[in-house]
Design goal:
The structure holds 2 protein chains of 2 kinds. Chain A is an alpha+beta fold. Chain A has 3 helices and 5 strands, in the order H-E-H-E-E-E-E-H. In chain A, strands 4-1-3-2-5 form a 5-stranded mixed beta sheet. In chain B, helix 3 crosses helix 13, helix 3 runs parallel beside helix 18 and helix 9 runs parallel beside helix 12. Classes of the chains: A alpha+beta, B alpha/beta.
Chain lengths: 113, 440
């Protein structure tokens, strides 16, 4: 996508987590529900989406962006490349919580430092 | 540019698209009163990029942070402030560069040398591991024109060009008629290897699903089969021995094969070792037939930054000038490592968006230091900037050289004038450099 990262369209396209339909049933999550995705690095609220390029049971996909990078880890195994893929995560429903926009996410998480 | 009487506008033809590393150079852009009115031949994303110059609320005035608030200023004041930050800094990080011209790269590298900084491109979070592997074992590659004219077997491994490089298949790999492939896609076979059935996999002749993080093992097993060795397992990486043997025979018996690979190989746990093995497979296959391999470079001039940095310093990314001469040690001198160790004390970000694309820990450090941002849009990075100098779009409002993913340089031409008073990345960086060396 070549749209402003501060636009609603970017949030709609990127603040999502594509899940396998079987996994969604098991977790009691429906397409469009807000979910909390947590790793050792942190957690983030995104919208669950039925995977269109599945099935991929046991795997979840979040597009590259500030939401995915809220849970990516540290280090680079001496290569310069951070661990962007293959991160162990816990996914739980978070219907009451809000998906932040890129602007809110950046300001709340980083500007307050 | 030609006048189109029927449309009463100017038509720019053979325009280079400044979106992805495919660098399509057949775009037509209609311009009326210095405004883009239509874009033809480009993909959806490329078209959106051309129209993004018209984005509402696009920044045209430099901004500087005063008492925590960004206020408008002049280009001269912003350039002076940027130079002051870089001069004061002990270990500045100069990062980005993939969406600007090679001419801008040259000025950025000159600044890095002058201030003793660390300069790194988006390569380090993209195909950096591919560079490491190429330095280890070489790279039997070719140009995209050779693929178009000769390839009868195309493999996409760990990449999804239907989304990331939408015209790659139609311009170069599968659909075009080539000199030796007169019937286009009927003369070619497409194999996709990925952890999920991507939209590229859906149109492939064959899709092979590899278990996540097991690409290295699968590559090794294919090499064993190609070299006539026994595979001592029934299943490798989720793929059966029989399927691997069948695939190896197919690869050996094509006339001209090519492997394109993406982040599915560079970002998974084995990183450069995956690429090392894929390149060695390509070498092994050249004992039987003609085979090539090529990384699917993302941003339109990420390849160009590697080229310019290499011819100026000897190294393609993660170059540290702190000792007065270029030093290269990815893992130590790469952007994320420098940030996560808390070493950098100022940053100059050009034509990229690390606040959106770096892990949280890196961004936390970036948020603590004076940050200069040069780019055409408001982005998550511009939100954290202390100095923001808006620039024109290379390939739309400014001409400049860019390198295609097969390292073929193309001149991305200007089709419209940029907003009044907005300079190009090249001009802004040159002015910052001059300000830094003034009085020396």
């Amino acid at each position: 996508m070549e749209i402003s990262k501060l636009s609603d369209e970017y949030t709609k396209a990127t603040a999502i987590c594509e899940l396998d339909s079987e996994d969604m049933t098991q977790l009691g999550i429906k397409d469009g529900d807000n979910v909390k995705v947590s790793s050792v690095a942190g957690s983030v609220i995104v919208k669950a989406r039925n995977a269109t390029q599945g099935p991929h049971k046991g795997m979840a996909f979040i597009p590259m962006g500030p939401w995915a990078n809220s849970i990516t880890g540290t280090g680079s195994d001496s290569t310069g490349m951070p661990p962007f893929k293959g991160i162990d995560v816990k996914i739980e429903e978070a219907k009451a919580e809000k998906v932040l926009s890129a602007r809110e996410l950046i300001k709340e998480v980083y500007r307050g430092i | 540019m030609q006048e189109s009487l029927s449309k009463r506008c100017t038509v720019a033809s053979d325009v280079v698209c400044p979106f992805c590393g495919t660098l399509c150079d057949d775009i037509e852009v209609d311009v009326k009163d210095n405004k883009i009115t239509d874009v033809r031949h480009a993909c959806r994303i490329g078209t959106a990029k051309f129209f993004s110059v018209l984005e509402e609320g696009r920044p045209t005035k430099p901004l500087i942070r005063k008492n925590g608030v960004m206020v408008e200023t002049t280009v001269d004041t912003a350039v002076k402030k940027a130079a002051e930050i870089l001069k004061k800094s002990i270990r500045p990080l100069l990062y980005g560069w993939s969406s600007t011209s090679c001419e801008a790269h040259a000025h950025g590298i000159a600044i890095a040398e002058e201030v003793g900084g660390v300069i790194d491109g988006t390569t380090s979070v993209c195909h950096g591991p591919s560079v490491l592997a190429i330095q280890d074992v070489g790279c039997p590659s070719c140009t995209l024109a050779e693929v178009k004219n000769r390839a009868d077997l195309v493999i996409y491994w760990g990449c999804n060009p239907m989304h990331a490089h939408p015209r790659h298949l139609s311009r170069y790999t599968i659909y075009p008629r080539g000199y030796f492939r007169e019937r286009g896609h009927q003369d070619r076979e497409l194999i996709v290897i990925d952890v999920r059935k991507t939209d590229t996999a859906k149109i492939a002749n064959k899709f092979i699903k590899v278990d996540y993080g097991r690409d290295y093992e699968l590559l090794g097993a294919i090499r064993a089969a190609v070299n006539g060795n026994e595979i001592n397992a029934e299943v490798v990486g989720g793929v059966t021995k029989e399927e691997i043997q069948k695939l190896a025979e197919k690869l050996k018996n094509c006339q001209f094969g090519v492997i394109f690979f993406g982040m599915g190989l560079t970002m998974t746990s084995a990183k450069h070792r995956n690429i090392d093995n894929a390149i060695c497979l390509t070498k092994d296959l050249n004992r039987h037939t003609k085979f090539s391999i090529m990384p699917m470079r993302g941003h339109y001039n990420v390849t160009g930054f590697g080229e310019v940095l290499t011819w100026q310093t000897g190294y393609p990314y993660a170059v540290d000038f702190s000792t007065g001469y270029p030093r290269y040690n990815p893992g130590e001198t790469s952007a994320n490592d420098v940030l996560q160790r808390g070493e950098a004390d100022a940053a100059l970000i050009v034509a990229s968006d690390p606040v959106a694309h770096f892990p949280r820990k890196s961004v936390e450090y970036l948020a603590k230091m004076p940050l200069i941002y040069i780019g055409p849009h408001h982005t998550p990075t511009s939100l954290l900037a202390d100095v923001f100098i808006p620039s024109t779009f290379v390939g739309i409002e400014t001409g400049g050289t860019a390198y295609r993913m097969d390292t073929v340089p193309l001149y991305a031409k200007k089709v419209v004038d940029g907003p009044k008073g907005v300079l190009s990345d090249e001009e802004i960086l040159e002015r910052i450099y001059k300000e830094i060396v003034r009085g020396k």
